[in-house]
Write a structure and sequence with these properties.
alpha/beta; transferase; SIR2/SIRT2 'Small Domain'; 225 residues
Length: 225
């Protein structure tokens, strides 16, 4: 059996593919106040603005390409049972070749009914106001907004608990509940943190810090593992 390698990724891994993150710009995301476009309150106030915002992000993701960090993590599947847990809503891990990807915060190429979060559909073009799910509910992006529950977090915690090696790439570890996943790493399991600015972490033993951008850091990780 291959050892299980669990990877938590954040915006830093997609930034090198040209996808900007709202954390880089003081709470503005592509010029928008993040709560206007990524909260239930923003949706209640101006759903058309929210749809337009995510329609734009969908086009950005379509135009982006996986980088060496995405393909490098996929390459690890030769030797490890790799499980990716990502905070990102793009599909660059999948396009980079990873076969097991859990999206904590939803997926830009999916949409769902406002009335039933189980009614999920694929979408590669724009979602418009008036586009309805089969239950009659308006379709919205399948994204976890600020203030909404993160339905995949328990599954993610189980993955981390079963890890033989745990890797964190390109996340500030500031967004909860994702940041709490470190607490589920079993004692003695090696933890690698790759970021251009290493965040503060409470793990003490078996901690390996690689202070580099995601592409360079994953390359170093490949040479170690």
């Amino acid at each position: 059996m291959k050892p299980r390698l669990v990877v938590l990724t954040g915006a830093g891994i997609s930034a090198e593919s040209g996808l900007r993150t709202f954390r880089d710009t003081d709470g503005l995301w592509e010029g928008y106040d993040v709560y206007e476009v990524a909260s239930p309150q923003g949706w209640q106030k101006n759903p058309a603005l929210v749809q337009d915002f995510y329609n734009g992000r969908r086009q950005d993701v379509k135009a982006a390409l996986p980088n060496a960090a995405h393909t490098g993590l996929a390459k690890l599947e030769e030797k490890y049972d790799v499980r990716i847990i990502t905070q990102n809503i793009d599909d660059l891990h999948e396009r980079g070749g990873s076969t097991r990807v859990l999206h904590l915060h939803g997926e830009i190429f999916k949409m769902r009914s406002v009335d039933n979060e189980e009614l999920i559909y694929d979408i590669h073009d724009d979602i418009k106001m008036g586009d309805l799910a089969e239950d009659g509910g308006q379709l919205r992006p399948h994204i976890v907004w600020f203030g909404e529950a993160v339905p995949m977090i328990e599954k993610a915690a189980r993955e981390v608990w079963e890890a033989d090696v745990f890797v964190v790439v390109g996340t500030s570890l500031q967004v909860y509940p994702a940041a709490s996943l470190l607490q589920y790493v079993k004692p003695g399991v090696p933890v690698y943190i790759i970021d251009r600015k290493i965040p503060e972490v409470a793990v003490a033993d078996n901690l390996h810090l690689i202070e580099k951008p995601a592409t360079e850091g994953v390359l170093e990780l490949l040479s170690i593992l």
